[in-house]
Design a protein that fits this description.
This protein is of the alpha+beta class and about 325 residues long. The protein folds into two domains: about 5-170, Nucleotidyltransferase, domain 5 (2-Layer Sandwich), CATH 3.30.420.10; about 170-318, SH3 type barrels (Roll). It is about 35% helix and about 25% strand. The chain is built from nine helices and twelve strands. A hairpin with a 5-residue loop joins strand 9 (about 275-280) and strand 10. The relative contact order is 0.11. InterPro entries: DUF5641, Integrase_cat-core, RNaseH-like_sf, RNaseH_sf. It comes from Loxostege sticticalis.
């Protein structure tokens, strides 16, 4: 495996080097009420190559004009990037053939617009999706669960734009590593810190996932979709941080003072419960299976299978 490119490792402003990809189509209604017609819309994902910050935009159709307007909205809110990397469209599967055709047919128009703005627009090699693994992973995080939680619920363009913005906040709230090595510091570094200088937070709302969908208003239904997405995605993110090993041997990399994410089934959106290891308790066979964790709300005891360690500074360096 080769070294990471300079755009991935050299510190600079967020969204200076960007990867972009499309997902969809998603079916929405053209208006509220009876007689509404189903139309297609698409998800456009911008991801910062340095800090993995995510920006999601809803796009009404697959035209060069719609893409350029999406790019203008992105630049207005996130600043002008120096370079934009993109698929060349040939690696899309048949279900997304229209996206691939759109990119192939509009390469020159998009490149001309980027050139006039002083932006380098670069396409990766054909049939090499692993060259754009960072934005493919971002699309996977957003698209797979979004399709499952939206299902047959058809919402308007305004509502799906709101949903994309809330999902963007969820993805930008994920903990990356501890902010400091202090045993009394329970704050992690998140992509949101690079965007607004502080963690992403969500307004408190009642749990709606167990409510009957027919009894919900349109706004409550949208909030239910967001909470459902959070439940699915944060459990997947936690499981990726865990190291799956046999219980017969102690291969845990947990040490006293390490910051960990605590797996909770009913955590509210954007609320990651974190703590630091206070004590490790070995069993009669000298294998550690239980730990005491110091949290902002006191000391709790959990098994190691419910703890997900965050990368340390040494591990991030290499």
């Amino acid at each position: 495996m080769g070294n990471l490119p300079a755009q991935r490792i050299n510190p600079d402003f967020p969204f200076l080097s960007v990867g972009v990809d499309y997902a969809g189509p998603f079916f929405i209604t053209n208006r509220k009420g009876r007689g509404a017609r189903l139309v297609k819309c698409y998800l456009c994902l911008f991801i910062c190559l340095r800090y993995k910050c995510v920006h999601l935009e809803a796009v009404s159709d697959l035209t060069a004009e719609a893409y350029i307007m999406t790019l203008r909205r992105f630049i207005s809110r996130r600043g002008k990037p120096v370079e934009i990397y993109s698929d060349n469209g040939r690696n899309f599967v048949a279900a997304s053939k229209d996206i691939g055709n759109f990119i192939n047919e509009n390469k020159e128009t998009i490149a001309d617009f980027a050139g006039n703005q002083g932006i380098k627009f670069m396409f990766i090699v054909a049939y090499a999706p692993h060259f754009g693994g960072i934005w493919e992973a971002g699309i996977k995080s957003a698209k797979n669960h979004l399709r499952r939680v939206v299902g047959n619920c058809h919402i308007t363009f305004e509502e799906i734009s709101t949903l994309f913005a809330q999902i963007e906040a969820i993805l930008n709230s994920r903990p990356l590593c501890p902010l400091s090595s202090s045993p009394n510091d329970f704050l992690p570094l998140t992509p949101g810190h690079f965007l607004i200088g502080r963690p992403m937070t969500a307004l408190p709302s009642p749990a709606l996932c167990d409510r009957n969908e027919n009894q919900l208003t349109r706004y409550e239904r949208l909030e239910r979709i967001r909470q459902h997405f959070w439940q699915r995605w944060h459990q997947e993110y936690l499981s990726e941080l865990q190291q799956r090993t046999k219980w017969r041997t102690d291969k845990s990399r947990l040490n006293v003072g390490d910051m960990v994410l605590i797996t909770e089934d009913n955590a509210p959106p954007l609320a990651w419960r974190l703590g630091r290891i206070l004590r490790l308790s070995p069993g009669p066979d000298s294998i550690i299976r239980v730990a005491d964790i110091n949290t902002a709300r006191g000391v709790i005891r959990r098994t190691l299978t419910r703890l997900c360690p965050l990368p340390t500074a040494e591990e991030l360096r290499g």
